[in-house]
Every structure is written in structure tokens, then in C-alpha cells.
Amino acid sequence: MELQYKHFGEGQPVIILHGVFGISDNWVSIGRKIAEKFSVYIPDQRNHGKSPHSATFNYFAMSDDLNEFIRTHQLEKPILLGHSMGGKVAMTYALEHPDTVDKLVVVDISPRKYPGRNVHFEMIEAMMAVDFDEVETREQVEEQLKSSIPSRRIRLFVMKNLYRKTRHTFDWRLNLPAISANMDFIFDGVQSTDTFEGPTLFVRGGKSDYIQKDDYQLIKKMFPAAEIETIDNASHWVHAEAPDELCALFSSFLGKECVPPGAE
Asked: Would 199 be classed as within a structural domain?
């Protein structure tokens, strides 16, 4: 599957993989900072953003997409950086193709299987319930989402997927039916008996429960060289809530400073 993507900078390739309901735009700010020293690629994963839709939606398929992306763009020894669902795609790929990956960064997700989370199903239901025949503005879409998604931060995150289908109508870029039908696969654990021995960084949000102390043993078993760092003031949305702290961890791990565009 040919993924749409954004690209910034030159140097060693870094591929950033967004989470479920995400889009490449979510990582542009951090991507531009990393691009001061690296060639940064931020693809939209299948069923997200401007990439193609498919009824197949699981980590093996998304790992295959990533493999095709790397081969198509002739990327040598990329650094993989994935958040949430994107972290599991990155882990799956690194375990399947360990000799092709230089370093691995996983943001606020562990390899284990997760129980279904109501927030995800509520987001899907809220998006599918929007009556686009009754709206003419983004504000009216947000108004329809309010009762089901009371958090404005999450509403704005969801609305990143909104686009004008015609001059007067909106639609979602997400393939909501496929995502909804396959959510069990997204909550599933990383299925591999192999290990990735390369340098690995796991970053957890201190206010998040996605990586717990009990996960450390499994992480170390699958990624023996893993370092695990915590950003205390961040929830699961680490890149949105603590971008400077996240960039500082990236700088230390990657060995090159993560700086704002134009900074000296």
C-alpha cells in the first residue's frame, strides 16, 4: 500500500508513526525539530489521513506497509519512532526486520495486549453519528461532538480528520467502518517470539497507565537494550502535552539535538 507522507530535512532517516485516529499533522511540530539533524518522514497509516483505505487493519498489515514504504524510498537503517498504535507498528517491524532498523523509539505503549478502552469506542460512535447533512461549518461539527466527547482537547484531535468533501459538505478522512470492525486487533499485543537487540527507548507519560511497572519485564524480554523514561507531567498524549521534554529525551537518545526550526 502506497502511504501518503510528509517529509522534512536531510540526513539519516527517521520515520514517525502516529496512533489510532491520528494523522501525520499531529507530529509535524516535533518532526520539524528533529529535521534539523535528520531526514524525517511522517506517513499517514492505512485507513488514516490521505492514505488508502482497506478492510484489513492489523499490525502485520501495517508493518508490511512500513516495509514497502522503506523499500520504495530506499531508506537505509532508519530510526523508527511510534506513538501508541504507531509504537506497536514500529515494534512489530523491528522484530520482523531487526537488521534494517538502527534505533527504535516507542512513546507510551507497551507490547502487551490491552483491554478495550471505552474512550476509543466513544470516539468512533461520536464521529459516525455526525450528521453532515446538517452542518456547514467546523464549529457545527464540534457542537455535534460535544455531548459524546466532552473533552475539547480530544474533540480537536478528532477534528484533525475532518475535511471538506465539496464546497458545502464535510466528511471524515478516517475509514471508520474498518477501524471500528478491527479495534480488537489494535488492542492486541505484539505477537513475536523474536527480539530486537538494537538501541531502544520507551517513553511513558507519568499520568498515563499505558506503560506500567509490570510491563517492564516484557519490554526487556523483547527489547533487551531498552531504556524506559518517564515524563511526569504528561498523559498518553505526550507529544501534545510535553513536546519540549519529549524532544530533550530524543536528543539524548539520538545523539543529536532536537531544536526548533531556525534555532542556532
From this structure: yes
Residue 26 DSSP SS3 = helix
Question: Is the model's pLDDT at 260 over the cut of 80?
Answer: no
Residue 162 near residue 137 (C-beta atoms within 8 A): no
Residue ending a domain, among 162, 181, 200, is 181
Flag whether 186 is in a domain. no
With beta carbons less than 8 A apart as the criterion, state whether 3 and 69 touch. Answer: yes
Cell of 182: 478491527
Centre a 10 Å sphere on the Cβ of residue 128 and count the other Cβ atoms it contains: 12
Q: List Cβ neighbours of 96 (8 Å cut-off, separation of 6 or more).
A: 63, 67, 192, 194
**92, 192 contact by CB (below 8 A):** yes
Task: Round to whole Å and give the CA distance between 200 and 198.
Answer: 6
Rounded mean pLDDT, 57-72? 98
261 and 238 Cβ atoms separated by less than 8 Å: no
- Domain-located, residue 91: yes
Which of 46, 40, 120, 86 has its CA nearest to residue 203?
86
| pLDDT the model gives residue 261 | 47
Helical residues (DSSP H) of the chain, grouped into ranges: 28-34, 59-72, 85-96, 118-129, 138-145, 152-159, 176-181, 183-187, 216-222, 238-241, 243-254
User: Which residues have a Cβ under 8 Å from the Cβ of 94 and sit 6 or more positions away?
Assistant: 80, 101, 104, 196, 198, 200, 223
In a domain, 262, yes or no: no
pLDDT for 79-119, tens place per residue? 999 999 999 999 999 999 999 999 999 999 999 999 877 77
Residue in the block written with cell 479495534: 183
